[in-house]
Each structure stands twice: as structure tokens, then as C-alpha cells.
Amino acid sequence: MSDRSYAILGTGAIGGFYGARLQQAGLDVRFLLRSDYEVVRDRGLEIESPHGDFTLPKVNAYNTVSAMPECDVAIVALKTTQNHLLPELLPPVLKKNGVVLVLQNGLGIEAEVAAIVGSDRVVGGMCFICSNKVGPGRICHLDYGMVSIGSYAPEDRPCGITMAMGQIAGDFKRADIPVKPESDLLLARWRKLVWNIPFNGLSVVLDATTDELLADDGTRRCVEQLMYETLSIAARYYRLIPREFVREMFALTTKMQAYKTSMKLDYEAGRPMEVEAILGNPYRAAKQVGVSVPRLEMLYEQVKFLDRSR
Amino acid sequence: MSDRSYAILGTGAIGGFYGARLQQAGLDVRFLLRSDYEVVRDRGLEIESPHGDFTLPKVNAYNTVSAMPECDVAIVALKTTQNHLLPELLPPVLKKNGVVLVLQNGLGIEAEVAAIVGSDRVVGGMCFICSNKVGPGRICHLDYGMVSIGSYAPEDRPCGITMAMGQIAGDFKRADIPVKPESDLLLARWRKLVWNIPFNGLSVVLDATTDELLADDGTRRCVEQLMYETLSIAARYYRLIPREFVREMFALTTKMQAYKTSMKLDYEAGRPMEVEAILGNPYRAAKQVGVSVPRLEMLYEQVKFLDRSR
User: Fold this and answer.
1) Could you count the other beta carbons within 10 Å of the beta carbon of residue B51?
2) Is A26 left (phi over 0), alpha (psi -120 to 50) or beta?
3) Which residues have a Cβ under 8 Å from the Cβ of A251 and sit 6 or more positions away?
4) What is the dihedral of CA B213, B218, B222, B227, to 10 degrees?
5) For A213-239, what is each residue's pLDDT tens digit?
6) Which of B74, B183, B215, B260 could form a cystine bridge with B7, CB 3.0-4.6 A?
7) In Å, how far is A218's CA from the nearest CA of chain B?
8) Which of A219, A305, A306 sits opposite B301 (nearest CB)?
9) ipTM
10) What is the dihedral of CA A167, A168, A169, A171, to 10 degrees?
């Protein structure tokens, strides 16, 4: 039995859900909160889920990292728009050999974290989950939940299955969270971007759900072409994603039916959008290797404009 | 002195303004109206303009073409979204040698009109004017007003200055309307599209005025790239527009300050937008000659999606 301790930096739809599941499985979990701190300190966390609702009346809640004990694994579950806070947040909460698990969307985040804690202590994670925070300390899990994780190495070298990944995977499995180990983190990131770039971007610009974007032939073609542009960037970084993958993403999205992307939810709620992690960094990655991605570029500029206009 | 008679098909911001000026100058003008028919029949037209307000208490108003006498020049001043009506509207109002002047935005319209009335009777016109209909029979002219006109010939052959152009130009000058004759209509159409494509399209998608699009570096670059894409299509049709023209368009637009494009005004008012004339036809022109215009394509699909979503 593991006695690894976890710090959850950002107790929202992602951090709240996974952190609660880890605590429910008996692990030692501490939650960092801002606006919800008092409520969660007094009343704990409440999770609604098709896998069974549950309440944790008592959780270790903190509103500052300086009060938190050092932990073995720090899970970064903030929005990437808050990542400028990481240089303050991460060092105090990590044991000497502690590991950071980044549960965020987009490209280039692990390198930023590695610059803070060292490159041999960073694991990237991608959540395939529909989950919303519906109130302070109240998370509504709707569907899915799988997390794929891969270790980071400088210059995005694939590093196979590392011990840190194995330990985290073990803890997650104990909490009944499906985990998929990825031997090549960058490949996994690009695969997720193939979906995230078109659907997040267009859903904001066109005020549309995924099913609306797929129901119209024209926007369907836009989605497809943006996916191919993404494939073409990945290929220049030696990550070959077969064109067949685009068809799989269409099939998957059709099965999901009406879905509001995270960027669209942020936009509607008046929160900053993850423009740079999801669109800006991939665009700059393309530029750096001279791949032409006119559609991604225009989409990036459009979403950035809308993000700033508010 | 001319005794040419004019039929104005569509008495809105454009048709109402130019028709009123022609009548004011003593020409015989008949106006076709739909929703404003009763008001204009009873009260005439009222024009506010920096060049002097004026009222025409009595105009020849019609609500059907079958009642209109045949004329020498029929001015098509409908929105292009109404052009499916032209096969019914044009033949009854034209004398045997009558000419059609198309005062509309976009590409490919003269060919449609030529298919109805014959290709030697079509003159295309582009209005450089800020003008709005502010009520039934009430037009508010804000600025500018120049009309450039060019004769149509099959396959868009340049046809120099024709007699029909000369006669129309004469009547317009008599009405103090600045006229610029264009020896190559298609070149003039592409030049106008260089401005219309980016500003009309992006103003709708991003809910923005021209000055807002220019104030943001990212959208400014989008505008510029869309202009270059437009140049590249025109070039494949042997219409060479120098790259310097893009800079001129930026200077002109900066001078105009905050401006709402016609497509944006239509979108806000819940009216159908001129998507096909301004974006769809240029996109298809590019496709036909194999020019890659990914930004125009995405913009076209985006605006079409928004047009349909209402």
C-alpha cells in the first residue's frame, strides 16, 4: 500500500474530482483553494458521478502553499491561464524527490514546469473527462474519466514508462481511475491537440456546440482541415499521427453528441480562455519549424481577439 | 439634356439615395418598393446629407414591376441576397435597348444579370459611400458617395469606356454624383473585394468595427493576409493589383475610423448577409483556378455558419 501524499493545486472540476477519488481510496491528499477555501474547509467536497455520488465531509483544505506539508506528488490542476503562479506554488509543496503531475490542456506546459522543479520530476497528464464545478466544493462528473500520463524529458524526448509514472498509475488505479501510460508524452499531447484545436477554437468563435459544428458541412470541413494542419505540425516534430486518426476523432465526437468545450465554457462564464496553451503554443511550434498553418493562425488570432475584447 | 428614364429596383440606403439625387437633378425616376411602398407613395423621400438635406415630397413609387413604365436604365440596388428575384423584376421594366446598372457588392453578379437581359446591356457599379436607411423613405447619407462603373462583357473581358457608361456617367454627373469610369470591370471588382472580404467577414465573426480590427496586431495581420489571398486570386484572372494597394487600403481604413461594415449591419439587424456575393463567389473563383486561399475559405464557412445559425 502506497503512503504517497498528494497536493492538489487548483480544486476545480479536474483537481476536485481526481483529488476526491484519491482521498476516497485512502491516500493522503491536501487541497489548495482560493475562493472556495472557507466552504470546503467547513463542509468538504461533494461529488456527483454516474459511478456513484459521494461526499468527503472532511478534507485537508489550504488557502496558501506555505501552510501545506511537502508532498510526494503535486497535481497541477489550475487553468493554464494561472500558470504564471507556478514558480511560487510548486517549490514549497514538493518533497526533495517529489514529482509534479500536470493535468492541463495544451502544449509546452511541462517544459515550463521543468524549468521550475527540474526536468526529471515532471509527468504530463491528459484528462479525457466531462466534469464541471457546479458550486464551491461541488463537482459534477458527467462522463468518462480516463487519464493518460507520460514523463517529460528535455527536448521532448520520449522516455518510455518511468518509475514516477508507475507509482502515479498505481495510486490512480487504486482510486478506480483508468490510466493509460504513454511512452511518448509529446505524441500524446499532439493527439489531444488534434481534437482540442478545432473544437475549442471554433466553438468560441462560432458560439457553437460540437454537434452544431459537425452538422454543418462547411464547419465540418474547417474542423477537418484544422486537424490536418495539426497533424502536419506534429509530423515535423517526428510525431506521425495517421490520417485515419482524424476519422476516429469525428466518430468519437459524433458519439459524444452536444458538447460544450472547456474554452467555450470559460468564454461564456467570462473567465480567461486557455488561448496560449491550446492555440498559441501549437501555432508557435509550427512557425518554429516553418510549417504553414494559415487556418490555425487565423483561429488563434480570432480567439485571442475575443479573449481580449471582454 | 438627357431624357433617359431610370427604374430603381430596391429603394434602400443605396437606391434611395442615388435615385433621389437623379430625380432632384430633373431626371425621370421610378422607385420600386416593398415594405415602404405606402409611406413613400404618400410622403416621398427624405435625404439627410452633409452635402445638404433635401426632401422629394412626390416620387413615382411602385410596389410591382408590372405597373412600371419601361425605362432606359434599371438600377439594381437590392441586396444580393434578393437577386433570385431579378429574372422576374428586370425584363418588364427595361426598354428594348435599356441598360442595367448593378449597384451591388461582390463578384459574379453581372454575369447573372447578363444571363437575364443579354451581355451587351450590363454595367457594373461599385458605390464608395456610407449611407443608411433610417426609416421608411428616410435615408441618412453620412460620407463619400463616389460610384465607379464599368461595362460587362462575356468572360469578363475588359471593354474600355462604352457608350452606356458614358450616358450613365453623364446623368450621374448632372446629379452631382462623382463617377469613375473603369475600363476593366473585373479589375475594379477585385479591388473592391480586397477591402470587402476581410473587413466584412471578420467584422461579423468577431463582432467588431474596422478600427477595432486594426487596433489589434493579430487581427490586423489576418486582414492583411486575407487581402494578399484576394490579390493572389485576382492575379490568376490576369488582374494584377500591386501589393502596395494593401497598404493604401490600410491607410484609407485608418482614416475612416470606427466603421460598421454592411455585412455587420445586416447581421445585427437579423437580415440575411451577402455571404455568397462577397465571400462565396470569390472563394469559388479561387477554387476554379486552383489558388489556395485557406483563410478566405475558413472565413467564408464561418460567416455562412453564422448566417444559417439564426
Assistant:
1) 11
2) left
3) none
4) 70
5) 999 999 999 999 999 999 999 999 999
6) B74
7) 5
8) A219
9) 0.92
10) 90
